[in-house]
Specification:
three-stranded antiparallel β-sheet; single chain; 35% strand
């Protein structure tokens, strides 16, 4: 993924930019990501919170993860587009949905999470590192 990225919701009321590359990127098949995206998994690029500049009003929905942490899903209150995710276990990180990127073609997942919840019709790359549940913290996550 290129080092300078930007993105927005469908209506443009919420937008963001970052001048550093993501810490990592993932495809997550946990049930919460499936419900939040209306798909088989969520594609997320994860950044250090200090490197992502978020503009506009974001409404949040808080959930308890499988690991017992609180996580927040941020979406545009005007158009309903999912934009960001805040993992409670690592509060210094923030994720953006790949579909919200101005150029989604730059997204390149580095791991597949919660494969035990993946549906057979939702095929992801077998070449990526795969984890049945959550992966250990990525480099730079501390």
């Amino acid at each position: 993924m290129k080092s300078s990225i930007s993105g927005r919701c469908a209506c443009g009321a919420v937008h963001y930019e970052a001048d550093t590359p993501p810490v990592f990127s993932m495809q997550c098949h946990c049930r919460d990501c499936q419900r939040a995206t209306g798909s088989g998994h969520a594609n997320m690029a994860i950044f250090a919170r200090t490197s992502l500049r978020l503009h506009g009003e974001v409404r949040y929905h808080t959930v308890t993860t499988d690991m017992g942490h609180l996580a927040r899903r941020g979406f545009c209150p005007q158009c309903g587009s999912p934009v960001v995710g805040e993992p409670g276990a690592v509060p210094h990180l923030i994720g953006v949905h790949a579909a919200s990127l101005d150029d989604p073609s730059v997204f390149a997942p580095s791991a597949v999470l919660y494969t035990k919840r993946a549906y057979p019709w939702d095929v992801t790359s077998a070449e990526l590192p795969r984890f049945e549940t959550m992966m250990p913290p990525p480099p730079g996550a501390n």
